[in-house]
Amino acid sequence: MTDAMRFRLVLAGLGLLTLLLFFLSLMTGPAAVAFGDSLHALFSDKGDTVALVMQEIRLPRAILGLMIGATLGLSGAVLQGWLRNPLAEPALLGVSASASLGAVIAIYTGFSALFPLGLPLAALAGAVAAVLVVQAMAGLRGGALAVILAGIAVSSLASAMTALALNLSPNPFAALEIMFWMLGSLSDRSMTHVWLAAPFMVAGWVMLASLGRALDALTLGGDAAASMGVDMRRVQFLAVFGTAASVGAATAVAGVIGFVGLVVPHMLRPLVGARPSRLLPASALGGACVLLAADTLVRLIAPERDLKLGVLTAIVGAPFFLWLVYKTRRSML
Amino acid sequence: MTLLSVKALSASLAGKEILKDVSFDLPAGEFVGLIGPNGAGKSTLLRTVLGLTPHRGEVAIEGRAVASMSARERARHVAYLPQERDIAWPVPVEMIVALGRDVHRPVFSRQGVADREIIDRAMRRMEVEAFRDRPATELSGGEKARVLIARALAQDAPLLLADEPAAGLDPSHQIMLMKTFAALAGEGRSVVASLHDLGLAARWCSRLILLDKGRIVADGPPQTVLTRERLRSVYAVDAHLGEAGGKPVVMPLDLADRNGP
């Protein structure tokens, strides 16, 4: 079997798994609806309870799971390829922490209660602010290391401001709301959230997906890539703004969901011959699979307790990552 | 035809002037050895020709200023082998060599038959076909170096700049490399390779450029560049200069006594 055929097989397998998990996510919930009925209800315009549950609650949840998972997987793969570092992940640029801070400020000031999109819009503003600061600090000639350092600084500052908001929170309910939002979840999201996040995510995907060939060349280092016709400033611009747009939008509607963007590229790298350009679509599908599966699991494990998605991905993701490090430590050093 | 023309080139890194008023012309069909002690500015000269470091002066490739070329355009005219041999991911050897062809392919197009042939030829020349499917990160230093050279050859550009390509290779592969570069020159391309092994440089290059403290101190055929006095003043070594098989032999023997005769 040739290389290209195996790659297509991997993509087809991941695509099929994504589809399966998408339907599984649609089927899962407290309202017991039969398989056939639920599928039918998705497209019915009768407006009965089943149709409402499917169209207004489960469909946006499954779509967001799919899109956010793909965002995290894709941006993780791009950042690891661009920075040539297997520890890179979407949160590295400070976008997630700053989007969180925006959301926290919205909750703290009551802005989120004014209108339904108050919170995600504030979070998006936070993400935009972060990427502007990071890009201004690093400069176009600054290169990857400057971006990482600026990202760490912005992340730390945003976390400190979030802690300050919790510290000064006027009532315990607001503090609790902030805490819960930060854990990351897809429950009670509507189609409005989908429509808000989708344009940013799609724009981000287009930017990130265009980097495949440049990332292949970057396997040999920055100078070699530049000599092979890669415009390094363009790569930096697309990687930073693509991540900011897609991950910023994901964080804005779902909170911070960790470890997916870090672990998924690692899991799939051996399946695509470690080739960065092939890792991009595989990692996007893989991210969608993992997030859809995790979001289905939180509903199955503890239907009554509202287990948060971000908690589950971290609990499963961190030990899994440890195991990966243990297994691959020799080839990484 | 002049392939590369460098005029009054100066470059500074972190406020320190590395290259001072460097000028030379390179016609097609030459294999130039760029020699000089550590810190003489060899790597900086190669990187500056590619436009990777800020500089003053003019660099023109086939009559066109490098500064006015896009990165892709430049890549079709010049291939470059950096000194850094770090390969980030365990990708198969063949994919690395094939990267050299990406320069010529429009986005989303596939590898053609001609591309395949050039890739195979580059791998044969560097004797790396035997491990074409192995992850490049698992190879030894010298094998990795040969894979990266094959990648640069696959770029199939009229001008090849190689930064210490012979470092870490065993004697037979060093000679094979030198012969390959000489053969490229015979095909009407030109190669500029920075070299530390004066013996290799003297035997295989058609021309040597000797850099010292950022300036060109000698430029010409190996016999005229490598004189006893120059090796003493630039490298501070005493050397045996001879001839074997009609080609010069250079063997550094001992540190020169700088205060001596």
TrEMBL record, chain A:
Cited Pfam families: FecCD
Keyword check for Membrane: yes
Record-linked InterPro entries: ABC_BtuC-like (IPR037294), ABC_transptr_permease_BtuC (IPR000522)
Location(s) in or outside the cell: Cell membrane
SUPFAM superfamilies per record: ABC transporter involved in vitamin B12 uptake, BtuC
Domain of life: Bacteria
Major site of localization recorded for this protein: membrane
Positions of transmembrane segments: 60-79, 91-111, 117-138, 145-166, 194-215, 235-268, 280-301, 307-326
Record-level Gene Ontology MF annotations: transmembrane transporter activity
Keywords, ordered alphabetically: Cell membrane, Membrane, Transmembrane, Transmembrane helix, Transport
UniProt membrane topology term: Multi-pass membrane protein
Entry's Gene Ontology cellular component terms: plasma membrane
Stated family: Belongs to the binding-protein-dependent transport system permease family. FecCD subfamily.
Listed name of the protein: Iron complex transport system permease protein
Originating species: Shinella fusca
Source species taxonomy: Bacteria, Pseudomonadati, Pseudomonadota, Alphaproteobacteria, Hyphomicrobiales
Automatic annotation (TrEMBL), chain B:
A GO molecular function held by the record: ATP hydrolysis activity
One protein family per Pfam: ABC_tran
InterPro entries assigned to the protein according to its UniProt record, in alphabetical order: AAA+_ATPase, ABC_transporter-like_ATP-bd, ABC_transporter-like_CS, P-loop_NTPase
Ranges of residues in domain ABC transporter: 4-238
Superkingdom of source: Bacteria
Keywords for the protein's UniProt record, in alphabetical order: ATP-binding, Nucleotide-binding, Translocase, Transport
SUPFAM superfamilies: P-loop containing nucleoside triphosphate hydrolases (SSF52540)
Keyword Translocase: yes
Similarity annotation: Belongs to the ABC transporter superfamily.
Function noted in UniProt: Part of the ABC transporter complex HmuTUV involved in hemin import. Responsible for energy coupling to the transport system.
The protein's name in its UniProt record: Iron complex transport system ATP-binding protein
